[in-house]
Write a structure and sequence with these properties.
The protein is built from 8 helices and 9 strands. It has a single domain, classed as NAD(P)-binding Rossmann-like Domain (Rossmann fold). The chain has 241 residues and is an alpha/beta fold. Helix 1 packs across helix 6. The strands form 2 sheets. The protein has a 7-stranded parallel sheet, sandwiched between helices. It binds NADP nicotinamide-adenine-dinucleotide phosphate. The site of NADP nicotinamide-adenine-dinucleotide phosphate has 27 residues, from helix 1 and strand 5.
């Protein structure tokens, strides 16, 4: 049984990670809402720490609470929570205050959690950090420029951290997701993968120690982008994502 800190288990991919991992592991969830009761009841060791990831003092309090509850250390940290705001810079309803919020949730809070939980992760001979990323971190689309930038930033953060931790027992992985059927994408796109299938593939990647786990169409996107960034860019501008 592992002890895993997971952000965003109240919805979407994070909720399906809780459903898949909660039966056999202790999951400590950081989100504002509590996950649905049916998922919590299937996860005997479940702990919810109400946290606003947009607020660094709330994140600091959550870190202190995790450290206090886990004197034996933790086996994993999965940074899954994120928001995607869709207005463009040129939109009349673009709210500049939302820039700070989106960056805080998607990029600052994962960095703060990694830093704050590094000692706890290091208490185990083998442990992992898994950052949930997006194809949009590889190639941006026209909408959601801040979201795309936070995911590109998360990619660089993950790769830099991986280099720093090389030779330790702490593995740093990412999962690059395609369009997934969750509340984040309600009313958008088609051909979405289910969050259950995505959670299954994320867990498979962690178990196999995959550095960058490209899921579904994210695999093809990375290859096309490597061969021709301009074609990849055109594909993303056309895709309804
Ligand atoms: N859906 C897709 O197509 C897609 C594609 C590529 C990558 N991804 C990535 O997959 C991950 C999961 O996304 P999803 O689609 O499952 O989204 P989702 O269903 O909207 O869930 C987002 C989660 O983030 C949490 N969250 C949002 N704001 C928060 C805050 N201020 N403080 C604490 N928690 C907060 C929410 O919890 P509370 O509201 O309870 O706080 C919720 O649990 C994200 O990293 C996303 O970027 C998704």
């Amino acid at each position: 049984m592992k002890t895993i800190v997971l952000t965003g288990a109240s919805s979407g991919v994070g909720l399906d990670l809780l459903r898949a991992l909660g039966g056999a592991n202790t999951i400590i969830n950081l989100s504002r809402r509590t996950p649905p009761e049916d998922a919590v009841s299937q996860a005997p060791g479940f702990i919810h720490i109400a946290t606003d990831l947009a607020d660094s003092s709330s994140v600091a309090a959550a870190i202190a609470s995790v450290v206090e509850r886990t004197p034996q250390g933790i086996d994993g940290l999965i940074n899954c929570a994120a928001v995607q705001f869709t207005p463009q810079f040129t939109s009349d309803d673009f709210d500049s205050a939302s820039i700070a919020t989106e960056i805080a949730i998607n990029l600052t809070s994962p960095a703060q959690l990694i830093h704050g939980l590094l000692v706890s992760l290091g208490q185990k001979p083998e442990s992992f950090i898994l950052n949930v990323n997006s194809g949009l971190g590889l190639v941006p689309k026209r909408e959601s420029a801040i979201y795309c930038a936070t995911k590109a930033g998360l990619d660089n953060l993950s790769r830099g951290l991986r280099a720093q931790l090389q030779g330790t027992g702490l593995q740093v992985g990412q999962a690059f997701l395609p369009l997934v059927d969750t509340p984040m994408t309600t009313g958008r796109g088609n051909g979405k993968l289910s969050s259950r299938e995505v959670a299954r593939q994320i867990i498979k990647g962690i178990e196999r120690g995959v550095d960058d786990n490209d899921i579904g169409k994210a695999k093809l996107l990375r290859i096309v982008n490597r061969l021709s960034p301009s074609i990849a860019s055109r594909i993303m501008q056309k895709a309804e994502s």
